[in-house]
Amino acid sequence: MAVPKRRTSRANTRHRRARWTADRPDLVPLLLAGREHLVPRRLVPAYRRGLLPPPS
């Protein structure tokens, strides 16, 4: 396992952590049971195969 040679300052650590943010999933329109729903792009195949119930 890699071990850092030097200690990272508190300011640098906090600056790095503060820049990380989770992105909202991009929603795409999908036609399910005659109605259009907005679903995350990565879940479209699961909705099409019927593995997930249509969102309300």
Keyphrases for this structure?
ribosomal protein; Ribosomal_bL32; ligase; two-stranded antiparallel sheet; Ribosomal_zn-bd; ligase activity
User: Major sheet: order of its strands?
Assistant: 1-2
Q: Mind describing the biggest β-sheet? A: 2 strands, antiparallel
Q: What is the count of β-strands?
A: 2
Number of helical segments with 4 or more residues:
2
Rg on CA atoms, Å: 21 Å
Strand content: 15-25%
Question: Which SSEs are present, and which pair or pack?
Answer:
Layout: H1 10-19, E1 27-32, E2 35-40, H2 44-49
Antiparallel strand pairs: 1-2
Summarize the structure in words:
There is one protein chain. By secondary structure, this protein is α+β, with helices and mostly antiparallel strands. The chain has a domain at 27-56. 29% of the residues lie in helices and 21% in strands. The chain contains two helices and two strands, in the order H-E-E-H. A two-stranded antiparallel ribbon has the order 1-2. This is Large ribosomal subunit protein bL32. It comes from Pseudonocardia nematodicida.
